[in-house]
Inverse folding.
């Protein structure tokens, strides 16, 4: 045992780590997540950040702070105020939060191992064990969903405040300025409650930590720190005030709820029986982080095998934790940390999504701490039994920890690549969870959005390729078929566009724009009857759709159904009275009916609305010519040509009238 003592003596050098070790944590975090800075807004980032007007108006602070995660919303609003939708700014803040959380974890582990309960076993090895724990936790690939996926700042920010609460309590227990530390703990707890509801467990966890590591009895906790726990418990009022507690516990709170007992998608019992399998999966990813997925689409466990096998593993761990906690053993706290923080999302409270990796953000620290400390103890034991020198053992320890950190950090760098675009993210999701229909839908939506943007930019051939991928990925999604029709139509492939629009209408018969655009395509191919049918359908679906009434009128006019055409144009004008084109079209219909004076009224109104329109002058000229007012008609044609010299119809009409005025010669 002489060598074992020597190892501890060597390891214990340097009681105070200074800033050197925490800076290693910062460096490791930056290296592991540097490539995440180029990641895109993905998944729920769109509705929570990109299109969320609430965070786009920082000056309306009451709106920003009006949600259930007001602290998170405030940070997003500041991000938006500083850099708008520059994604790098959001990623930098997420990375800063994560690194600060890692440094706080370092402080918690170091001070816990140096506390009176564990000092005799770990002594001054605490800085190095804390460093190993924090490094592994910071660079672990399982954390990417909480860091690289921007909106999951909710999880990491809550995690930072959770850790700060515990750190402040630990500091306050041994500091002459304990009131300041305890006050900071209460503030951090309140901020955590305003970040995410999982923070609800923090006051309980801190109380258990206090009893395990700081106090000799619960009575001592009550006597010495009752005010602290009153303050921590008071922060539950924040969750109550913003409706989280009612929303979760009241089974009648919200019929459209996605979390809590009012969610009807899965029963509390079925959810509870499924969670051992989910937790076992989390643990597997902790030790072998391969096959990660942003959206598992985890099914409810329904077979005895799916329920029993995970429970055989998880239930003894839970019972062992409770048994150890009953004796207030230090090891029990790691189990309490793991299970208690997972409890709001991984017990019996139903949530739409049964599994999400970000739920392991804080629980991962318990597993990593256990493995780090166990590894340290094992090396000490082996060193004493085998006679290996302290120097060699220390070198082996450094190599092992460095190897684990490098391997995990490399995995994180690779995993960050998945967040570079929505297409990459959902392609990865389908690859790992091929039975999850939401993966296919979201991939199709991403292709659809890209194709739509390309279409808007005039890149029709590229848009067609991308939108065809979207249609193949999820054939039941209407958007890709509709946008494919738009791209094909813009590219001149009318027959293919017509088929795409018809497919969109098969999926969604009341798709107004699909009917409208299909009508235009049919009009271009000369199918007047088909065009009229679909434009009429668009007006029936949306009686306020003025452009559809206009298009219907054009089709009817071409079919010489003049009375109906006039009605359609007049309806369009009631909806858009200041549209010059509608006045012009109504004028055409009236002129064709021989109602020249009424037609002129419409043409003059069109000219008033758009004085620089050469077509208005041309149409007025045609109507005046029909009335035999040749000189006035000539003036209108000349004005049209002054505005647009190459206006061919005006040129031809003017030439015709001038030839009629030329004197006859022998």
């Amino acid at each position: 045992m002489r060598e074992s003592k020597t190892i501890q003596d060597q390891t214990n050098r340097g009681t105070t780590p200074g800033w050197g070790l925490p800076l290693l944590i910062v460096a490791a975090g930056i290296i592991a997540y540097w490539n995440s800075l180029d990641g895109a807004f993905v998944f729920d980032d769109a509705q929570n950040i990109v299109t969320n007007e609430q965070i786009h108006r920082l000056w309306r602070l009451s709106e920003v702070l009006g949600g259930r995660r007001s602290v998170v919303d405030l940070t997003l609003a500041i991000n938006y105020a500083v850099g708008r939708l520059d994604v790098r700014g959001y990623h930098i803040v997420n990375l800063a939060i994560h690194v600060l959380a890692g440094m706080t974890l370092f402080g918690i582990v170091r001070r816990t191992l140096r506390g009176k309960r564990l000092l005799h076993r770990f002594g001054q090895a605490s800085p190095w064990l804390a460093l190993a724990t924090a490094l592994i936790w910071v660079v672990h690939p399982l954390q990417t969903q909480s860091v690289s996926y921007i909106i999951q700042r909710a999880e990491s920010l809550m995690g930072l405040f959770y850790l700060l609460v515990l750190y402040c309590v630990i500091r306050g227990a041994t500091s002459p300025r304990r009131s300041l530390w305890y006050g900071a703990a209460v503030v951090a707890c309140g901020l955590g409650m305003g970040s995410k509801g999982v923070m609800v467990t923090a006051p309980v966890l801190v109380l258990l930590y206090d009893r395990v590591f700081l106090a000799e009895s619960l009575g001592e906790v009550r006597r010495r720190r009752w005010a602290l726990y009153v303050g921590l418990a008071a922060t539950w009022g924040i969750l109550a005030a913003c409706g989280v507690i009612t929303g979760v516990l009241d089974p009648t709170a919200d019929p459209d709820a996605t979390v809590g007992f009012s969610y009807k998608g899965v029963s509390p019992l079925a959810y509870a029986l499924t969670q051992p399998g989910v937790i076992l999966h989390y643990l597997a990813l902790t030790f072998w982080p391969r096959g990660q997925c942003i959206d598992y689409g985890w099914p409810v466990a329904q077979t005895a095998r799916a329920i029993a096998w995970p429970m055989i593993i998880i239930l003894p761990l839970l019972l062992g934790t409770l048994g150890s906690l009953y004796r207030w053993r230090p090891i029990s706290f790691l189990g309490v940390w793991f299970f208690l923080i997972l409890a709001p999302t991984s017990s019996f409270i139903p949530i739409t999504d049964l599994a999400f990796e970000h739920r392991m953000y804080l629980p991962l620290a318990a597993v990593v701490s256990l493995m780090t400390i166990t590894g340290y103890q094992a090396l000490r034991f082996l060193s004493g039994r085998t006679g290996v020198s302290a120097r060699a053992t220390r070198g082996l320890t450094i190599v092992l920890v460095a190897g684990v950190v490098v391997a995990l950090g490399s995995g994180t760098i690779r995993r960050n690549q998945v967040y570079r675009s929505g297409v990459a993210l959902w392609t990865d999701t389908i690859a790992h969870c091929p039975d999850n229909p939401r993966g296919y839908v979201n991939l199709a939506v991403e292709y659809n959005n890209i194709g739509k943007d390309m279409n808007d930019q005039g890149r029709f051939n590229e848009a067609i390729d991308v939108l065809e991928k979207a249609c193949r990925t999820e054939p039941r999604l209407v958007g890709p078929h509709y946008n494919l029709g738009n791209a094909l139509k813009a590219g001149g492939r009318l027959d293919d566009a017509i088929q795409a629009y018809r497919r969109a209408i098969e999926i969604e018969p009341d798709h107004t724009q699909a009917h409208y655009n299909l009508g235009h395509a049919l009009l271009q191919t000369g199918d007047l009857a088909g065009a009229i049918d679909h434009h009429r359908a668009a007006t029936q679906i949306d009686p306020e759709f003025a452009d559809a009434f206009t298009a219907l009128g054009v089709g009817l006019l071409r079919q010489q159904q003049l009375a109906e055409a006039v009605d359609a144009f007049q309806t369009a004008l009631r909806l858009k009275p200041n549209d010059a084109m509608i006045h012009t079209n109504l004028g055409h219909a009236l002129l064709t009916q021989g109602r020249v004076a009424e037609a002129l009224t419409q043409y003059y109104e069109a000219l008033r609305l758009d004085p620089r329109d050469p077509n208005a002058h041309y149409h007025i000229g045609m109507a005046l010519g029909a009335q035999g007012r040749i000189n006035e008609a000539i003036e209108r044609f000349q004005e049209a040509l002054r505005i647009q010299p190459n206006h061919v119809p005006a040129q031809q009409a003017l030439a015709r009238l001038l030839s009629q005025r030329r004197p006859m010669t022998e």
The first helix runs from residue 2 to 11. The radius of gyration is 35 Å. Residues 1-14 have pLDDT under 50 and may be disordered.
